[in-house]
Amino acid sequence: MLNKAFQDMFDLLGCEEPLGIAYAEHAPERSLTPASGTGHACLINYLRLARTKRTCVHVSASVTGCMGGWVYLGYTLPAPERIVHFVTTGWQGGEGEHYLPSPDSMRRFLKDIDIQPAPAPFCKAMPLSLCEEEPLLVSFSCRGEVLGGLFTLACFALDDHNAVAMPFGSGCANIFAWPLHYQRKGQKKAVIGGADPSCRPFMGMDELSLTMTFDVFTAMAGAVPRSFLTGKTWAAVRRKMESGRKDKKA
After folding, report:
1. How many other C-beta atoms are found inside a 10 Å radius of the C-beta of residue 250?
2. pLDDT tens figures, 233-243
3. Which residues neighbour 139 within 8 Å (Cβ) at sequence distance 6 or greater?
4. Which among 84, 148, 169, 247 has the fewest CB atoms less than 10 Å away?
């Protein structure tokens, strides 16, 4: 579902089309999905496939591909005690990630993010132009210049210098759980993600994510004509981006 305002926004930013993400009662047809019994399936990797193959991907409550990912989707609640130790100091016979200093730190994080049960048994993602209905979330994957543009546009559109948050969390926590956390609190936020070392192998060099609820995305698109994106400063940024792309091809 692309309209002129959305496409104008992408063209001015010089960015890749974002993904639309939504929960669904039924599995989408012709969609990539982890098969039962295939082991670990990183949600970030499936989002990457949706982008690169320009297709729909989905996961389901009944096929668990990632211990943490299915927690942040709201399919495995409450979070198992194992994940509390996995993210922190480990457990007997298992090495921890040491992303937080203690199990209590992780328990405070889980209390703060307050993940709610998923509203439907399937969660799907696809390029926004392939969405037939309004998605719940819109997620960009981008490097520094585009991220800076999106960051500034969010602050401008929402008239809030705190419009963008970058809380601690896994790559999927910052794409799925944190934007919905802010929505439940009545806060309009765009959320930066991708700092989690575990998700970095599935992301491009220097690439981060920026995810927001659909209402925040439409506010950003609507604000483009009166924003900095039409001015000289952003034109200079675009020239830098184009020059970098040419150097990369050389």
Report:
1. 5
2. 999 999 999 88
3. 18, 19, 21, 47, 125, 175, 209, 210, 211
4. 247
